[in-house]
Write a structure and sequence with these properties.
alpha/beta, two-stranded antiparallel sheet, 11 helices, 10 strands
Length: about 325
């Protein structure tokens, strides 16, 4: 296990540039995909109402402070895989913990970019991958979109993602939402948000499977139904630090994007110590030759940050 610091401003001098080292480590075992059915135990309790309030454009968003999730994880003790990782103060352990408890810099870039776009989100289908706190998806939901969100770790979804969606989308005050134990809140969230955890390849298969199952018995054609189940907007931030996962992410996005849909990917130009970055991902997009991509610089201070706009090429 090892730690990556995504905020490093300069690359460490290793003296081994250009050398290829054959790995003797066993292949990583990625987590399976789960769809999370919302129950009352997912919702924040009266002791979890310590929230941060931020304003993006004119939209007010709330999110639980990280300590709320950490407290829940600590209560689970050894039954929680993530809690043992966090005790080592580690940002990332590939295939075990993928950093979902932290709100990284590019999330704020993506939020500001969304606020500046002239797009109607009402009744749109929005997917956020590697969501963590899910603030970009929540922004879209507050503007009338139905959101589907995914994070690698189920603990992140249970203790950060779902509670954040709850305190933002419930019609009552934060305190009332947090102390509610009736079925209404769970049903309200389920009608406006869908939650997944697990590896991108497995999530891709699970969404495909559920789409096929939902189309059975429908009178409309499969092509029309499939397009209706896809997403108008796909969002992701700080998810391309691991080059070995780029193809899984791109395959998931292209499989579930509507023909006229948009992908917004926010990331650092380079992730020192792990090797990923925007140029590597753009190269893969161009090699796949399905999407056109445009890069917009979102921050030039320190490590450069970008937002990639992607959409299907016109046939």
């Amino acid at each position: 296990m090892f730690k990556f610091n995504f905020n490093v401003d300069c690359e460490a001098e290793s003296g081994n540039e250009g050398l290829e080292v054959e790995s003797t480590d066993p292949p990583l075992e990625w987590l399976p995909a789960l769809r999370h059915e919302i129950t009352n135990h997912h919702l924040p309790s009266s002791s979890d109402v310590d929230v941060v309030k931020v304003t993006v454009g004119t939209t007010k968003i709330k999110h639980l402070v990280e300590s709320c999730a950490l407290k829940k994880l600590q209560e689970k003790g050894n039954s929680c895989n993530v809690s043992s990782v966090l005790q080592k103060h580690t940002d990332l352990v590939p295939a075990v913990y993928e950093g979902g408890l932290t709100i990284w810099e590019c999330t704020w870039d993506l939020l500001q970019h969304l606020a500046g776009l002239d797009i109607c989100l009402k009744d749109k289908r929005v997917l956020e991958l590697g969501c963590g706190a899910a603030l970009p998806a929540i922004y879209c939901a507050l503007h009338g979109a139905h959101i589907t969100v995914q994070d690698y770790n189920e603990e992140v979804v249970n203790f950060i993602t779902i509670p954040n969606v709850a305190v933002n989308l419930h019609n009552s005050t934060t305190e009332e939402a947090a102390t509610s134990t009736d079925v209404h809140l769970s049903q309200t969230l389920a009608s406006r948000a869908t939650f997944y955890s697990g590896d991108w390849a497995a999530v891709n298969q699970l969404i495909n499977q559920q789409t096929c199952e939902s189309s059975r018995g429908e009178s409309i054609t499969d092509d029309v139904h499939d397009e209706g189940q896809k997403f108008d907007l796909i969002l992701t931030s700080e998810t391309i630090y691991n080059p070995s996962c780029h193809k899984k992410l791109l395959d998931l996005m292209t499989a579930h994007l509507k023909q006229d849909g948009i992908i917004l990917l926010a990331a650092k130009t380079h992730y020192f110590g792990v090797g990923g970055g925007t140029q590597q991902f753009v190269d893969l997009v161009k090699a796949q030759d399905q999407l056109q991509v445009q890069s917009i610089t979102s921050n030039n201070l320190g490590v450069k940050r970008e937002i990639l706009h992607m959409n299907f090429k016109i046939k």
